[in-house]
Specification:
With about 290 residues, the protein is an alpha+beta fold. It has ten helices and six strands. A hairpin with a 5-residue loop joins strand 2 and strand 3.
Length: about 290
């Protein structure tokens, strides 16, 4: 099954079993479809890592690159930015007015998209505030539309960089071996192995089955979880050492198509419950 069909079928099935999520799935499924279509248009050079640097990173279990080193197709990002604004205007009432403002600002060059891209990659909050003020929009919405438009380029770089990783190696750390960011989801595959999904570049990597993925605490008394009998494919792991949580999807208990981004947005009730219990997840996103 190709990715486009996977997105469509996953959205259709989830809407039937969780109709309360239909509006958000209608929007995000179209966002993910637009991102996937955009990937075919992305034009980027390859990121080259020298053998000596690669050996050092492998020995020290360091990520391959810093997020600031991702290459972005600025032109295609701008095209997708406008498309996502149109989708939000039609399908996301809470984003509709902001999307209209930002699309017009982009067309009229009121802010510099390339500057916004660089600021996101470098965590330059001050620059993003300045660009949001220039655009006339909200900073949170500017970041959402810009980052969502960067994802095709980011994923293209991430997949290219995967060739540098040791095949089938188990990453002992809970940060992404590609870019060093934290995971926003954990998965159990059909063989019961645990994998993590990067919150930034979407790379998935294998880790050990036990312990907190954030602070590596293995004290069983501090590792808790909750789940619902009505949603056996989901579980939320809680750590009483660092007070963070992560959502877990068990593919062995899922008899429907799976697309990570759609699982993230159709399980927001689990985020709410975890936060009500006093746990946080700063890395949680939709990608």
């Amino acid at each position: 099954m190709n990715t486009m069909d996977q997105i469509k079928q996953t959205a259709d099935v989830i809407k039937k079993i969780r109709p309360v999520y239909q509006p958000i799935l209608d929007f995000y499924s179209q966002v993910f479809l637009a991102q996937e279509a955009s990937r075919a248009q992305v034009e980027l050079s390859s990121i080259i890592i020298s053998p000596d640097l690669l050996a050092m990173k492998r020995d020290s279990q360091l990520p391959l690159i810093d997020p600031s080193e991702f290459l972005i197709d600025v032109k295609e990002t701008g095209v997708l930015f406008s498309k996502l604004c149109d989708l939000a205007h039609d399908l996301a009432p809470e984003l509709s007015e902001g999307a209209k403002v930002l699309k017009k600002a982009l067309q009229e060059d009121k802010f510099e998209l390339e500057t916004v891209i660089i600021a996101i990659l470098n965590n330059q909050d001050g620059v993003l505030e300045q660009q949001a003020e220039k655009s006339g929009g909200q900073i949170s919405e500017l970041i959402f539309f810009a980052y969502s438009s960067m994802i095709p380029s980011i994923k293209t770089c991430s997949e290219q960089l995967e060739t540098y990783l040791i095949p089938l190696a188990e990453m002992k750390k809970g940060y992404c071996p590609i870019c060093g960011n934290q995971p926003d989801m954990a998965l159990f595959d059909e063989d019961g192995k645990r994998h993590l999904k990067c919150s930034f570049c979407s790379h998935q990597w294998a880790v050990g089955r036990m312990g907190c993925v954030f602070c590596e605490n293995n004290d069983k008394d501090q590792q808790l979880y909750f789940f619902s009998n009505e949603e056996e494919e989901y579980r939320v792991n809680l750590c009483d050492h660092c007070h963070q949580y992560i959502k877990v999807v068990d593919l062995r208990k899922m008899d429907r198509p799976f697309f990570p981004g759609l699982e993230m947005v159709s399980s927001l009730h689990l985020d709410i419950k975890a936060r009500e219990k006093g746990y946080t997840n700063a890395s949680s996103s939709v990608s």
